[in-house]
Specification:
With 142 residues, the chain is an alpha+beta fold. It is built from 5 helices and 4 strands, in the order αβββααααβ. The chain has a domain of 98 residues: Tetrahydropterin Synthase, Chain A (2-Layer Sandwich), CATH 3.30.479. It is rod-shaped and about 105 Å long.
Length: 142
Amino acid sequence: MYRAIIICLILLGLVLAGGTIYGIFFLSNPQTSEQIDVPEAQNQVFSGIGRLRVPTAEPEPGVVIIFVSFFFNPNDRAFSEELVLRIRDFRDIIEDYIASYSIAELSIMDEEIIKLELLARFNAILRLGRIDDLFFSDFMIM
């Protein structure tokens, strides 16, 4: 019985030693933490502003339907919370901006100009981060 246990221990030792030698001489060097590509945190779309129906600046106002969204890093908790707290401010900014133009003026304006102006106004009220780009899922002038 003791001889069987000793033989098993010797065989186990040989397997461990052989595996170690094989790993050292025949396998490539393992990647260090600097070599491993760790993907950056995935951005998510902030769509909390929702779809807005904004009257235009005319005696008989038209309506602009707009849905604004943007990317943000959900791992930045402080900025995420600030975005949620600023939803009403974002809506007010959009409503004030759109309501200051007529249908004719909005029709000839470039959508990128509108995005840049809203983006500048959004970032002016934010303290804990910045928004890089705005996206319009809907932008219809009626």
